[in-house]
Amino acid sequence: GNLSVVSQTAGKFGRIFAYCLPTGSESGSLAFGADTSYDSVQFTPLLDDDRPFYFVNVVGVSVGGRPLPVSSSIFVNSGTIIDSGTVITRLASKAYSELRAAVRSAMAKYPVAPPYSILDTCYDLSSYANVEYPTIAFHFMGGTNLVLKDVNIFVAPSGGASQMCLAFVANSKEGDVAIIGNCQQKRNLVVYDIDNSRI
User: What is the model's pTM?
Assistant: First the structure.
């Protein structure tokens, strides 16, 4: 809206900003205005929507290089937003069920830990020096992919490796907007180019 920092600084910087969210003790960054380093960034179109969020078109999700067996309409019908103010990514229940099943299959050799609050898929990884995490990727309209690293896939809600939980949950009701939260954005440069309707 007109009160946002982006709108208020548009005359000086244009309507473009970027951030890189940190993990743990790292430092992150926030920048306003165009930069030549953005030339190598993959963009996907921002969708035209009257609601005050940044909507994108997710066309699929894959785990371990295999697409989840869900129709892209699951993502399109409810819409998907990128939101740095939401911690855990929320998906339509069908998409989440398939994602969870694929992750559980990939993590089958590791001992299960109790769930934590809304996080229902947790593992005790405290005895493992090296963990083979599955890759998870979001596929966007235009061919852009967001490939998640282990820090984007699991969180340690109690602070240690004895309870590492999948950082995704199902939406509470069908039709709710899917949200790509800040956990999945960490260590990625996210560029919002509002004037060119892309992210």
Answer: 0.91
User: What backbone torsions phi and psi does residue 59 show, to the nearest 5 degrees?
Assistant: -105, -10
What does residue 9 show for φ and ψ, rounded to 5 degrees?
Answer: -105, 10
Using CA atoms, how far apart are residues 131 and 100, in angstroms rounded to an integer? 18
Q: What six digits make up the tokens of 19? A: 């951030």
pLDDT per 10-residue tile (average), the chain, 199 residues: 75 88 87 86 87 90 96 88 94 96 98 96 96 96 93 92 96 92 92 92
The full set of domains in the chain, from first to last, is 5-193 (2.40.70.10)
- Cα 125 to chain centroid distance, Å, stands at 23
User: Which residues fall within 8 angstroms of residue 141, CB to CB, at 6 or more apart?
Assistant: 44, 45, 56, 57, 58, 59
- Counting every residue written for the chain, the total comes to 199
- The span from the CA of 109 to the CA of 124, in Å, is 11
